[in-house]
Design a protein that fits this description.
Layout: H1 2-14, H2 19-25, H3 27-30, H4 46-50, H5 57-64, H6 79-92, H7 95-113, H8 118-141, H9 146-159, H10 168-176, E1 183-185, E2 189-192, H11 194-207, H12 211-215, E3 221-233, E4 248-249, E5 268-269, E6 276-287, E7 292-295, E8 306-311, H13 317-333, E9 337-341, E10 344-356, H14 359-365, H15 387-392, H16 406-423, H17 435-449
Parallel strand pairs: 3-10
Antiparallel strand pairs: 1-2, 2-8, 3-6, 4-5, 6-7, 6-8, 9-10
Helix pairs in contact: 8-10
C-alpha cells in the first residue's frame, strides 16, 4: 500500500496535478491490477484481542491497523495535547454526561485508595512536613521576602514545573509550627513559658532526625544540655511610637500575670524603647546515658539562640538578681518532664547553666560591687601584683558555674597593652632630605637661565 501511494504521488506531481494530463501519460499505470492484504479480526495478537469489542468491531480493527507513534497517556502528554483531547471530549458529550462520568470515576478512585494503611498516610504527611521545613530553611538562609519568594517561585514554575516550590501560605504553616505555645505579649514586652520552650525545642530537635536515627534511640530518657543568660542594652534609638511619660506601677497592671510577680513588689518602672532587657537560651546537646543524639556545632552562634523574654526596661542590679533567682528556682523544680512524640513517651531532664552573661551581670550575681575585682577570689587592683596575697586568697567553688568569659579577658588584655603604650615616650625621627629633588631643581633653573 505504501509503495502504491508513493508511486501515485510522484506521477501526480509530475503531471502538475492536472487530471487530464495524468490520465493521458499514465494510462497503463491506471489499468494495472493491485492486490492488498488486510488483517482479519481473528488474526489479531493477544494484546489486541484484550481490547477487542464486539459492539465496536470496526473501530477496534482500524485502531489496531494504525501505524506511527503510540498514543500517550493523558498524564504524560503535553499541555497542548491535554487541551486538544479535552476539547474533543467536550464536543462529543454533553455537560450532564461528563458530570455523571466524573462522579463514577471519583467513586472508583475512592474504592482503589480505600485499602491504603494509615502508616502510609502518616509517612506522606511527614515527608510533606520535611519538605516544607527545608523550603523554610532556604527562605530564612537567603533572607527572602514574600515578594522575592513569589517571584522566584513564578520563574521556577515556568522553567522546571509547579511542584518545585510550595506556595507562600503553605510555607507559613511550617513557620507557625516553629512557634512554641504559651506566648504572652504585654506592654512591658513579650515572653514564653520556659517549660513550653524547652519541650518545643526538644521536639524540634527530634524532628530533624531521620527514621533510622530515630529508631536507633533505645533509651527514652533524654538529657537536654544548654546555656541561658541575660543582658541589657541602653541608648537605643527611639521610635515614633508614643510612650507614656508617667511610670507604670506593675502591681496595678492587669496585663502582667503571676510570671512577672518578681517585679510587683511596689516597684515602678517607666516604659520606653530606649532600653531593652533580654533573656535567652541556647541548646547545646541532646543525649541519653550512652548516646549523643544531637549536638550544636556552633554553640556561640546566634543561629540556635531562642529568646525566653524581652522587656523594655533598663538593666539594674535589683532586676538582674530577681530574674536570676526566679528562673534558677524554676529550673530546679523541674526534675523530669514527660511528653509524647510520634507515639513514643519520652522523659527529658533539662540541664541548663547560666553562662551567657557579661562582666557586669557576673559581678551582680557574685555580689561584687566593684567591676575591677575578680569574680572568683575577689582580689582588687591594689593587690593584683602581689602574688603572695593572691595565692593565699580562698576561691569560692560555687562561683565556677558562671564560667569565665574569654571575650572580656581579651578586652582587659588589650586595655592593658593600650595603657602601657600611653606611658611610653613619643619617638620622633628626622625626615631625610631628598637630594634628588634639589638636583633636578638646579638643573631646571640652569636651563631656564640659558
Amino acid at each position: 500500500m505504501n509503495s502504491f501511494l508513493t508511486q501515485y504521488n510522484k506521477k501526480w506531481n509530475k503531471s502538475c496535478r492536472i487530471k487530464d494530463v495524468f490520465a493521458k501519460h499514465n494510462a497503463s499505470f491506471l489499468e494495472t491490477n493491485f492486490k492488498f492484504t488486510f488483517k482479519k479480526s481473528n488474526q489479531l495478537n493477544e494484546n489486541e484481542l484484550e481490547n477487542y469489542d464486539d459492539e465496536n468491531e470496526a473501530v477496534t480493527v482500524s485502531d489496531s491497523l494504525k501505524r506511527g507513534r503510540p498514543r500517550l497517556k493523558y498524564e504524560d502528554s503535553s499541555i497542548k495535547t491535554k487541551r486538544r483531547r479535552a476539547l474533543e471530549l467536550a464536543s462529543k458529550y454533553s455537560k450532564e454526561e461528563l458530570e455523571h462520568a466524573l462522579k463514577i470515576k471519583e467513586k472508583e478512585c475512592d474504592l482503589a485508595t480505600e485499602g491504603e494503611t494509615n502508616s502510609e498516610t502518616v509517612c506522606n504527611e511527614a515527608d510533606n512536613n520535611n519538605f516544607l521545613n527545608q523550603v523554610l530553611a532556604m527562605y530564612l538562609d537567603l533572607d527572602l521576602t514574600k515578594s522575592k519568594y513569589d517571584n522566584s517561585r513564578t520563574h521556577n514554575s515556568v522553567l522546571y514545573g509547579d511542584k518545585l516550590h510550595p506556595t507562600y501560605p503553605s510555607m507559613c504553616k511550617a513557620k507557625n509550627n516553629c512557634y512554641p505555645e504559651n506566648i504572652r505579649v504585654s506592654k512591658l514586652g513579650a515572653s514564653v513559658h520556659l517549660i513550653s520552650l524547652l519541650e518545643h525545642t526538644t521536639k524540634r530537635i527530634l524532628l530533624t532526625l531521620n527514621e533510622k536515627e530515630f529508631d536507633a534511640i533505645k533509651n527514652r530518657e533524654l538529657i537536654l544540655l544548654g546555656k541561658w543568660g541575660m543582658d541589657g542594652s541602653s541608648g537605643q534609638q527611639n521610635t515614633r511610637q508614643n510612650w507614656k511619660n508617667e511610670a507604670l506601677n506593675l502591681m496595678n497592671d492587669s496585663d502582667f500575670s503571676d510570671e512577672d510577680s518578681y517585679l510587683s513588689d511596689n516597684e515602678i518602672i517607666s516604659l520606653s524603647d530606649n532600653s531593652v532587657f533580654m533573656i535567652t537560651f541556647v541548646p547545646i546537646l541532646l543525649k541519653t546515658a550512652n548516646q549523643v543524639i544531637w549536638s550544636n556545632k556552633n554553640p556561640a552562634s546566634p543561629l540556635f539562640c531562642r529568646p525566653i523574654k524581652f522587656m523594655f526596661v533598663k538593666e539594674t542590679d535589683k532586676l538582674t538578681m530577681k530574674i536570676y533567682n526566679k528562673y534558677s528556682s524554676l529550673l530546679n523544680k523541674i526534675e523530669k518532664y514527660e511528653f509524647e512524640f510520634k507515639g513514643h513517651l519520652f522523659v527529658v531532664k533539662f540541664d541548663l547553666h547560666c553562662t551567657m552573661i557579661d562582666g557586669k551581670v557576673c559581678n551582680v550575681l557574685t555580689l561584687q560591687k566593684a567591676t575591677t575585682r575578680c569574680n572568683i577570689c575577689g582580689v582588687g587592683p591594689k593587690f593584683i601584683n602581689d602574688l603572695r596575697h593572691v595565692t593565699n586568697l580562698p576561691c569560692n567553688p560555687d562561683l565556677y558555674k558562671f564560667g569565665l568569659s574569654s571575650l572580656h579577658c581579651w578586652i582587659r588584655f588589650m586595655e592593658y597593652i593600650l595603657h602601657v603604650a600611653y606611658s611610653l615616650d613619643i619617638i620622633t625621627g628626622e625626615k631625610e632630605k631628598d637630594k634628588t629633588k634639589k638636583i633636578k631643581k638646579k638643573g631646571y633653573s640652569k636651563r631656564v637661565t640659558v
